[in-house]
Amino acid sequence: MAAKSSYNRTECNPRQTGSVFRLNGIILAAGRGQRLGRDIDLEKIGPKCLLPIDSRTLLERTVSDLVSFGVDTITIVVGYQAERVQEACVALGRKYNVRFGLVRNDAYLSTNTACSLQIGLSGIHDDVVIFNGDVLYDRAILDDLLKINRTAIAVDNTKPLTGESFKVRILNSRIEEMGKTVPVERATGEFIGISKIAGRDIGEAKRLLNALVSGDPNNYYDFIYQSLSESGNLAYSFTNGLKWTEIDDIRDLRYAESIAGIACGARGRF
């Protein structure tokens, strides 16, 4: 099952350029954020990527980072309140001189991130860095990930894990297990929702996503990395105590606000 895009890569403030950038960006922002929506009114804010943290949205923080790495085209997979994201992209496009391609997961209520990434990757053939739209992170984490010249994921190797953590077990430089069901005592760490797929692996990643979505539209895209690891096509970078958080509920949001002032390299501050 492949959800269709009703936007067909709608461009906001396109920039004319003769240059070809090898690094693309994808931000997954289709979800409704039901858990967080129990405590704050997301109907007024929009998707979680539009949450303001210390005066800037999560979306703007990620866009700023991508632009600093020479990315001039960013794909955003939208669904819930897509029009709000489109409006934000018009302003961000002008501010950062960047082009956005918005593609819509029309089935966002009945699918998961594998389906959204399948849509987002449809027109991409070169290196791409992928973000879950609800992640606040120290820019140094992204710096470390992009230093790796191959497909790679960022793994938190210091955070206390819980049953809800999307855990990773790494053995002999391969991912042996992945998912929330991995026992805490066996896990190496938690996948934080920031990753990179090298251009040479894009075709295989698309094939793996097609298989995941066909098997279960509610699958997480994260599982493609275990398959890529089995064939030796995956590396990883550890956060080594650098701060980050996904924002699933009100406690996550409060923590994100508490770390928003941590210095983070070229971006200046969170």
From TrEMBL:
Cross-referenced PANTHER family: NUCLEOTIDYL TRANSFERASE, PROTEIN LICC
Keywords: Nucleotidyltransferase, Transferase
Domain MobA-like NTP transferase: 25-148
InterPro entries reported for this sequence: GlmU-like, MobA-like_NTP_Trfase, Nucleotide-diphossugar_trans
GO terms, molecular function: nucleotidyltransferase activity
Domain of life where this protein originates: Archaea
Protein name: Nucleotide sugar-1-phosphate transferase
Organism, as annotated: Methanoculleus marisnigri (strain ATCC 35101 / DSM 1498 / JR1)
Record-linked Pfam families: NTP_transf_3
